[in-house]
Amino acid sequence: MLHIKPIFSSLLHSKSGPLLLLLQIVLSVAIVANASFIIVERLSLMARESGIVENEVFDFSIYHFDKSTDLVVQDKRDLELLRAIPGVIDVAPSSMAPLSGGGWSSNFTLGPEERAKSTPNTGMYMSDEHFIDSLGLKLVEGRNFYPQEITTELLEDGGKMIVTKAFVDKVWPNDSALGKSVYMGAQHFVVIGVVERLQTAWVDNSNVEFSSVLSVNYPADYKRYLVRAKASDIARLKEVIPEILHKEYPSRVIEGFTTISERRIEAYRDHELMATVLTMMVVLLLLITSLGVTGMVMFNIQRRTKQIGTRRALGAKKRDIISYFLVENYLLCLLGGTLGVLLAIQLGQQLMSLYSLPMLALSYPLLTVVGLFVVTTLAVYLPARKAAKISPATATRTV
Amino acid sequence: MLSMKNISKVFKTDLVETHALRDFNLEVSEGEFVAVTGPSGSGKTTFLNIAGLLEGFTHGDYFLDGINVSNLSDNKSAAVRNEKIGFIFQGFNLIPDLNLAENIEVPLRYRGFSAKERNRRVEQALEQVGLAARMKHLPTQLSGGQQQRVAIARALAGEPRFLLADEPTGNLDSLMARQVMELLENINQAGTTIIMVTHDPELARRAQRNIQIVDGQVCDFTMYQANAARSASHGSVDKLVANAQG
């Protein structure tokens, strides 16, 4: 049987201890709820798929420092050599590497005029017809580039473009993107295909899912390539590729072999660090709160030894003593939890305005309170069980 | 009402065995007012604890209100204590954080009475001890005598079959002690059996029957009185005890 009224009455008469614990609970709920929210946000960001077969794709760069090199010819020759290496599934040139944090992006307009409606800022991969297979992308609408559509410079007209489904949903919701025109200044592109997903180079950007692939393999002295191979072949290929390419043409630097999996780890390092630190903080806070509860219960047991003996003498069963301490701390949890939820929402709003975080979902403070009840139960039960073993004969002793 | 047959209580440590009670026999009839006296360390508190089912015993049989309570489980013991026994402690044992009404409610809540029934009993018990007007006061706002009256009200509220009083006036001055004693006598006259452990021979004399415990056994009171008279001339308590045992 729960004796809430006298327990509450007793709590009101011994203010300082419970008040401190109450304060601890309020702060814990507010901090744990917001920290958990941020952790889950970060983890969900980290869990997003890039659309790429990450463990099978790596990128590297070639820097030509010999200005006399015919970059178009050399690029063509390099691609032939790379595609012929045993173990290489496919290779594509690319203006940027996914998840790398650096590359090209632009807003497109939906008409030739400058004031035409604009798309969101979109990542721009410039590549050829091997791009989709090299990254393992899934084409969900339209077609891939034809080899003859690949140009070495941006044309005013006739450029082809493949975009992501997220881009289409944003720009042409409820409409097919195929055949649609987009403009980048004077250049005109026609959308010929849609891939299910392809993230840009910037994982922290809200437009990370808006990618475009342009049918341009432009010549450059700093050129990047994306190679797809079985994961088990990648280590070997990292050794073999520089050898072959240097043998073909030694006056250049070949560097930066990085798998997309490695790029993911690097891209999300800060997120992971923050999630780890916040998780440790949450665990620590819950531990401190549970220690606070345990300490308070143990102190109360010591202080009330004779009282517990008297209660037992007056007919309290062991479970009555255990439930007394549980109810006493549940009351503190309920009160502290309610105030903590309010503070958590307030704190969440502050964080939202200061750091552009999404709004704190109410489920987080509520789940934190539930978690707190579980922690409290664990923290109270053992000392309370010890208290229940206090002999009723204690009532007649001088303690 | 209460029947103890050959009760023994032995406290064991690695080195010694202490016989707190040995072959202890006692019969208390319904409606009696029995005073239990004895020197310090004689086993009075052990007797009280066993009689009140506050602790178990090593050997023997104990019947309370016709029920053999010798080997009850912890939960059963608690239920019997709650229903059949009212406790009055030397130090009152009121809960300082609870007001008088809430203090008296404590055993009633463990019995599972409804709020209405609890209120009725609390009011009735406080009226019985003359403190009905102060039910919202905290124990610390009362004098020692008043606190003991609240403890008596708490013991009475459950309408127990008998009251066990442990030095009920031990912490009170003589005036307060007299008032509390009168209250106990009134309660007894209303039909409640009372067993009172006391050091005070004057209080003991006011009971209907005196039991003397010496070295864990009930001492024959007539013999004790004779020994007491004799020892008075020798002035030796030790001798008195030795004679009583002899």
TrEMBL record, chain A:
Localization per Swiss-Prot or TrEMBL: Cell membrane
Primary localisation category: membrane
Bilayer-crossing regions: 273-301, 321-345, 357-382
In what way does this protein cross or attach to the membrane?
A: Multi-pass membrane protein
UniProt entry tagged with the keyword Cell membrane: yes
Q: Sorted alphabetically, which keywords does the UniProt record give?
A: Cell membrane, Membrane, Transmembrane, Transmembrane helix
Q: Give all residue intervals belonging to the MacB-like periplasmic core domain.
A: 75-208
Name all ABC3 transporter permease C-terminal domain ranges. Answer: 280-392
Which Pfam families does the record associate with it? Answer: FtsX, MacB_PCD
Domain of life, per the record?
Bacteria
Keyword Nucleotidyltransferase annotated: no
Which family does this protein fall into? Answer: Belongs to the ABC-4 integral membrane protein family.
* Name of the protein in question: FtsX-like permease family protein
Automatic annotation (TrEMBL), chain B:
Question: Is Disulfide bond found in the keyword set?
Answer: no
A single GO molecular function term of this UniProt record: ATP binding
**Pfam families, alphabetically?**
ABC_tran
Q: Which SUPFAM superfamilies match?
A: P-loop containing nucleoside triphosphate hydrolases (SSF52540)
> ABC transporter domain: from which residue to which, for each copy?
2-240
Which terms are listed as keywords in the entry? Answer: ATP-binding, Nucleotide-binding, Transport
Q: Note whether Nucleus occurs among the keywords.
A: no
What InterPro entries does the record tag this protein with? AAA+_ATPase, ABC_transporter-like_ATP-bd, ABC_transporter-like_CS, ABC_transpr_LolD-like, MacB-like_ATP-bd, P-loop_NTPase
Residue ranges of coiled coil: none
SMART domains, per database record: AAA
Annotated protein name in UniProt: ABC transporter ATP-binding protein
